[in-house]
Structures are given as C-alpha cells and as structure tokens.
Write a structure and sequence with these properties.
With 458 residues, the protein is an alpha+beta fold. It folds into three domains: 262 residues, no CATH class; 81 residues, no CATH class; 60 residues, no CATH class. Helices cover 52% and strands 16% of the residues. The chain is built from 16 helices and twelve strands. The strands form four sheets. Strands 1, 2, 4, 5 and 9 form a five-stranded antiparallel beta sheet that branches. The protein has a three-stranded antiparallel beta sheet with strand order 6-7-8, with no helix packed on it. Strands 3-12 form a two-stranded antiparallel ribbon. A hairpin with a 4-residue loop joins strand 1 and strand 2.
Length: 458
Amino acid sequence: MKSLTELRASLSSWINPNRGVPIALDTKYSKDTAKLIEDYEKEHFNDLVPEKKAFLQDAMLKRCVVALASYATLTNGFDTVIEPPLPFETEEEQKQFEAKYAAVKAYCDSANKRVNMEDITYSCCIKLALYGKAANEIVKEIKTQKVVELIKLPVYNNKTDGVQPKLAAKNKLKGYVLRVKDDKFLGPKKEINYTPEKVLYFVNNDVDGDWQGISDVQELIATCLNRAALERETPQILKRIHDPYVVASVDTSANDYQTGTAEDQKKRLQQHLQGLLDGIDSGGNVVTNNKVDAKFMQLTINLSHLVEFENKTEDKIIAHFGIPRFLVNRPNVNRATADTEFKAFVSGTVAAKQRYIKRVLERDWYDMLTRQFLGLTSDAPLPVKIKHVWRQSEVGDFKEKVDAAVALFDNGVGLLGDNPELALQLSGIYNDKVAEHFNKQKEALVVKTKQAQTQLAS
C-alpha cells in the first residue's frame, strides 16, 4: 500500500495544455483525502453537520443564506485598485504611480480569474453563515510558485473536526490542521498540517479571538428541524382531512395462531392484522373470516394553527438574517417598507460581510501576490497596495429613475433621444460595459463618415 506521501505525490499534478507536460503542484489535499472526507460526512451527517442538514432541508433558511451570499459577492462583482502608501499631491503623480505598478494589478486580476474568486467568496460567505468559518488551500506550482488554484477545505461548527486553527500563546496563529476522527484516514498522524500562508481562512464574528467563529444558523437549527418534522408529517395530516380515523377490534379466535414457535405465531398475527389495517385505511374492500368491530372517527385538523406556525417560523428566519421579504418571495406591507428593508439590508448586513471579506483578501491574498510578483520577502514593506473594491449595490428605486428618464423624453427633452447614454445614466444602469458599447458605436460611425466623405471627394 502506498504511503500518504507517495499518494500525494502521485496525485499532486495537473496537465498544462500549452506545454503538454505535467506541472508539479504544492498541495496536500489530494483526491483520496477529499473522497475520505465525503465518506466521513455521510457516516456522521446527523452529528457532524446539523447546520448543513438544516440548510438542505429548510427552503426558507436556504433562500436567506443564498440571498445574503449572492448580494454580498455576486450581484455587482468587484474591482481591484492600486493604492499608494501615501497620497500624492498632484493627479499627474498619481497616474505615474498607477502606470508603474499596473503590472502588479494585472497579476492580481489574473490570479483572481484563475481561481474564480467570485465563486470562492460566494462559497465562503455561505460557510461563514453555516459554520462560522471557511478555509481554502492555496495551491502553487512548485517551480515558479505561481498560484494556480484555491481548494475549498471542509470546516465544521466544532473545535475538533475539519480545518482547525493552531494557536500559540495569546491566541497567536501558528498554522492550521485538517483533522478527521476516523481510523480509515490515510497516514500515521490522521491529520494534515498547514502553515498560515498556505490557507486563505475566514472567520465569522470572532468575538473570543480563538479563530473559531460563530455560526449564524446555530440558534435556528431547532426551529428548522421542527419545520422539517412538520413537512414530513404533512402527507399524513392532509390524508386525515378526508379519510376517517379507524379503531378496529378484531376477533382472531377463529384462526389458528397457536402452532409453530412463538415468533412464528407473532409474525402470522401481525401480517393478518396489517392486511386488515391496510384495507381499512385505504378505503378498499376487506375480506376476512374474523369478526371485526370498527369505529370511525373524524379528526378535526386545525390547519390555521399549522399555517400560522409555518408563517411565524419563516418570519423568525427572515428577521434573523435581516433579509428583505420580497427577496425571498414573501409579501410586503407596502412599497415604502420594501424600499426601507432593502436599503437597511444593503447598507447593513451586506456591507458588513463585504467589509470583512475585503480585509481578509487584502491582507492574506493580495499582499501575498504583490510580494510574489515583486520578489519581496514576507517581512519586507510593500511599495504598493492592491485594494479589493466591491461595486456598490443600487439601493434607489430603479423604476422611479426609469420613469423620470422617460418623462423627460416625453416632455420634449430631445437630448435623451440624441444621447441615450444620458438616459441610461439617469436610470442608474450605466457601467463600464455599457460605455464600451457606446464607444464602439461612435468609432464605427466615425469610420463610416470618413468613408462617405472620401467617396464624395473622389
């Protein structure tokens, strides 16, 4: 059997289509380890990941978590900008500085695209809500130390399994360990150790400074499990609305249940009674040589209380995350309330998530890439900073802006007809891609005009 080191070495490579040769990667999370973690989660699902169980079973919880992660990381995207150590006195100096370090920014942008940073931040935002932490192994090419991938590592809402921080005195971070409590784990130590710079790690509400974080859904687990139990019972509840509840007394003395072993007698009696019960319960015909006395009772199901329970628990989940109700298909009181909820959501809950993720990326991701590109050591001061800037969500009323632009055009402001860019700017949907589209149209118009003038001149 191969050792863990040999297994990692045989699996830690990928094929570069440009050169057609294997490139050795500096990674510890092999495919076999990933498969082992997957099997371990299946065996210990109920005890190990109750947060994930609630997330998968409760539709409203999933909507809220996904809505928060989507608006925080995917809806508007992000940009990277160059920031000098100190502000410049003139705009010309600022432009010269940005031109000097434009290659650093391009290097960081290329790394973001290579690892699919939007997906990484989206996944991290969901894991922060479920487990209070998220971890990704930074995979580099051994020869060039170029970052080629971020591997999502397993985390759980406890201090024993998955990725765990290793701390020195005063909670100073020494590294991380990936641990699974299982005898089937490959390797003698049953764990994989990482240095701090090998893991891009996020932690949610680290109030104790122990790098463990706090799950956002932990206090909702009991509520979600109760909702899931009600969902499982719903078919039976609905059946009792139109089917009577039957209490049957069966005389079994006419049958011979006295032969054979006690276990055989018990089994034959159970099968006979189950056959009678199935016939009565389904409303079908029952044929028996026994005397059967049946009493039919119509149960009154209080559906209004069940609906109220469903609505109250949904309101609890929505309020817990501060999600605007219209984002999760819940009706609003009025339009003003919806607008107020959305503004509070974007400027509060979403902004807080974005602010934290931005700081971690700038400290542990962009600084590392900048040092790598400039050939600097880990303790050398950086001559330039790359900042992660989230594009801002539009919290104003989009319909009102569009109506205003249309009204101006209808009232004879022909400038909007001659210059559609201005109409889009008033509507709040003008961005770099739109500007590029109009610039191409203008360039094409200039070329056609010149061609027409040349033909007229000839």
